[in-house]
Design a protein that fits this description.
The chain contains four helices and two strands. By secondary structure, it is mainly alpha-helical.
Length: 111
């Protein structure tokens, strides 16, 4: 089994991707925790599962158990082309509109 070691640079990179701020104490904590987690994953990768049959996913099991009750509910519906709504009708109750579109307040501010 190979030894997994997570360095400070990797922890800082993961923290940046997750958009979280870590002080030096937390970086050391996360470094130890991530090393332990990845070490456990590496141990799982070494387990021989050649003779293990794949398991059902919960949805497959659910459908199998309730097949008769759900016979029509999980069938793919046919996508029928039909006329769309009239733009004027859609926008008639809009509090604000511009160029035949809903106008809303900005939710993301410029940095």
């Amino acid at each position: 089994m190979k030894k997994i070691n997570v360095d400070e640079k990797l922890v800082k990179h993961v923290a940046m991707l997750a958009r979280i701020e870590l002080d030096e104490k937390k970086i050391a904590e996360f470094q130890a925790n991530l090393t332990d987690i990845l070490q456990h994953v590496e141990e799982l990768n070494e387990v021989n599962v050649d003779s293990v049959k794949p398991m059902f996913t919960p949805l497959e099991n659910f459908i199998e158990v309730y097949k008769e009750k759900l016979s029509n509910e999980f069938k793919q519906r046919i996508d029928n082309v039909r006329p769309s709504l009239n733009v004027k009708e859609v926008l008639k109750n809009a509090p604000d509109q511009q160029d035949q579109q809903f106008k809303i307040h900005a939710v993301i501010e410029d940095e």
